[in-house]
Specification:
The chain is mostly helical. The chain has one domain. The chain is built from 17 helices and no strands. It is globular and about 50 Å long. The two termini are 26 Å apart.
């Protein structure tokens, strides 16, 4: 798997290359405000502004900072900040895709389907245009796939570790972790009792990590509930719903993935299918509550739905419609 991970990492570097010197992110329009805030996390300490929630997404910028300092003044025309973000994102995306291969192999036993799902994941619109562009969703996606792998392989003791690290990647991870693991737990009647203890522990530690992270940056304690209430946007729900239907990012992401991924969905475990559905619905609810900018929903839905849809699509493409379950 090490060689496979390296291959995926190099593919990611190639897909994300334009951000190094072909895109002037410094003069980007308002839609890339988050990117500019992540850049500041690489070059400067976090702000103490409690309203700036992006400053708590420290994991990917912290990794990027290492490569920023190593590359500064050594990579000629390449932007060292974007180089750091590209390498950090490539590391997490390659890790997520490697975990996806392991999950697909475990569930299908077909190496062609496993590799095919990885390639379909990497070739989706989101990966080169949003995931490797300088945002930080790669960390959240990696740890959600780590959670899936731990559940499939029954390595429940890893869930608390994923919860802590994922909370440092993006605050929404904790909510998705709760919804995904709770649904999986409820739909797995044969799951051992110890698994429930590890799952509940992961919820507690995830929320505790959010509060501890904010305390370390702001110097004051804020409960997860206070943090969530502060994120409430002022956009009308009807306005957000209209944005979903008019967002080209969502269209580009799922225009081929849904039609190719749906036919074989029933071949995969019910707990995975319904846990993914529950998370996707919760993402829509969170977006309606927060009022995010266009493009945000495409990144979130890809993070949540792509693992299942790409494995299902690869099953259709590489096994064929008449393949046995």
């Amino acid at each position: 798997m090490g060689l496979l991970y390296l291959l995926f990492f190099l593919i990611c570097l190639g897909l994300g290359y334009p951000i190094l010197n072909r895109i002037e992110w410094q003069h980007a329009p308002g839609g890339l405000v988050d990117l500019q805030q992540y850049v500041r996390l690489i070059t400067d300490p976090p702000s103490n502004d409690p309203a700036l929630h992006t400053q708590f997404r420290i994991l990917v910028p912290m990794v990027a900072r290492i490569f920023y300092h190593l590359s500064r003044n050594h990579i000629r025309s390449w932007d060292p900040v974007m180089f750091g973000l590209l390498v950090a994102n490539a590391l997490f995306v390659a890790g997520a895709v490697t975990l996806l291969v392991l999950v697909a192999m475990r569930l299908t036993g077909n190496y062609a389907v496993a590799i095919g799902s990885a390639l379909l994941y990497l070739l989706n619109f989101v990966v080169p245009n949003l995931r490797l562009y300088g945002f930080i969703d790669s960390g959240e996606a990696f740890f959600l796939l780590a959670v899936l792998w731990a559940l499939v392989r029954e390595r429940y003791a890893l869930l608390p570790l994923c919860a802590i690290a994922g909370a440092c990647a993006k605050e929404t991870f904790v909510g998705f972790l709760l919804v995904f693991t709770a649904t999986w737990w409820l739909l797995s009647p044969g799951i051992p009792r110890r698994a429930g203890a590890w799952i509940v522990s992961s919820w507690i530690l995830g929320f505790a990590a959010l509060s501890a992270l904010q305390w370390s940056i702001l110097g004051v304690f804020r409960s997860p509930l206070q943090f969530a209430l502060a994120l409430h946007g002022h956009a009308r729900v009807s306005h957000q719903v209209m944005l979903w239907f008019s967002d080209r990012n969502l269209l580009y992401t799922f225009v081929w993935l849904l039609p190719v991924g749906i036919p074989h969905l029933l071949r995969f475990p019910r707990n995975w299918r319904l846990a993914t559905t529950a998370c996707c619905l919760s993402a829509f609810a969170l977006d309606a509550y927060y009022g995010a900018a266009p493009g945000t929903m495409a990144r979130a839905q890809f993070t949540l739905a792509a693992p299942l849809l790409t494995v299902s699509a690869a099953s259709l493409l590489f096994q064929g419609p008449r393949a046995q379950k």
